[in-house]
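Design a sequence for this backbone.
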């Protein structure tokens, strides 16, 4: 069966729902800064996620927990300035929404107001139901995130595959249905069995965007520095590397160091 491919001038949360219906897979990557976001937007990426993985990738922290709301807004505003077509979604960082629904809404409003982003994402299901409701009631589009939820790493103790056991799988399915029913526009499923992710994608109306969740999802997301091969020590099975930039950039910088030391750079043509 062939499906009509639609050209989108600007991706909206509605476009993603249409893509699911048309069977057009959704492409999403993280973005944390203007220059990278320009490249992603220009390349035709559908969704740019200002992930709290900036805590690891940008700031060098071990986990996503330390990054602050102010820091997320700084990254998000840089990405928003680069986006002409892509939808920009921003992670609510750890500690900015778990206390109570009012705090969650305040944090979401700050992101929308101060960065100009189009939507927010937060981790969790039933436990944060009231917070999600409040944010949705304010007219802010919400993307869910279930499965491996890195903000709860100390509860689980490792980054292993989630929902392999029946009980956790049932909770995941019911959380996914809840997020769909409440009116979230999409859902990220991280590191869960492909069969389960496919079953969920087929049983809910909103797009399911997977990371390590198999090809039955309605879209895929990766951390951009991982797929470009800049983070050479991060090697999960779900990661496909499209470049080996760690190596290429190391060689380029080493060459520059050599050229400066050997006085090869700058030449007459490279000075005034
Ligand atoms: N660079 C980067 N990429 C990511 O995908 C990412 C981050 N940072 N930071 C926040 C979260 C953490 N994420 C993770 C972290 C670890 C694995 C993982 O598979 N780790 C091990 C296996 C761990 C285990 O099985 O115990 C691996 O194979 O590398 C997956 C996603 C996804 N996010
Ligand atoms: C891996 C994606 C889904 C994420 O939440 C992040 O980059 O923070
Ligand atoms: Mg995140």
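Sequence:
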């Amino acid at each position: 069966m062939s499906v009509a491919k639609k050209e989108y001038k600007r991706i909206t949360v509605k476009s993603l729902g249409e893509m699911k219906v048309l069977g057009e897979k959704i492409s999403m990557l993280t973005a944390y800064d203007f220059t990278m976001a320009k490249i992603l937007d220009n390349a035709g990426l559908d969704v740019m996620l200002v992930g709290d993985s900036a805590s690891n990738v940008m700031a060098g922290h071990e986990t996503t927990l330390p990054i602050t709301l102010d820091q997320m807004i700084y990254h998000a505003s840089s990405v928003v300035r680069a986006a002409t077509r892509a939808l920009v979604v921003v992670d609510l960082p750890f500690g900015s929404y778990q206390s109570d629904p009012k705090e969650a809404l305040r944090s979401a409003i700050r992101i929308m107001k101060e960065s100009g982003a189009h939507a927010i994402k937060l981790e969790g299901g039933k436990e944060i139901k009231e917070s999600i409701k409040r944010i949705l009631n304010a007219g802010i589009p919400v993307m869910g995130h279930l499965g491996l939820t890195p903000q709860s790493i100390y509860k689980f103790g490792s980054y292993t595959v989630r929902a392999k056991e029946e009980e956790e799988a049932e909770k995941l399915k019911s959380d996914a249905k809840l997020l769909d029913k409440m009116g979230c526009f999409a859902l990220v499923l991280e590191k869960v069995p492909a069969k389960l992710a496919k079953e969920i994608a087929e049983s809910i109306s909103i797009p399911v965007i997977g990371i390590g969740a198999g090809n039955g999802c309605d879209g895929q997301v990766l951390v951009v520095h991982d797929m470009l091969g800049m983070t050479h020590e991060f090697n999960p099975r779900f990661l496909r590397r499209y470049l080996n930039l760690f190596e290429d950039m190391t060689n380029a910088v080493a060459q520059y160091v050599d050229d400066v030391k050997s006085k090869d750079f700058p030449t007459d043509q490279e000075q005034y």
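Residues 53, 56-57, 64, 150, 158-160, 191, 223, 225-226, 231, 234-236 surround 5,10-methenyl-6,7,8-trihydrofolic acid (ligand 1) (CB under 6 Å).
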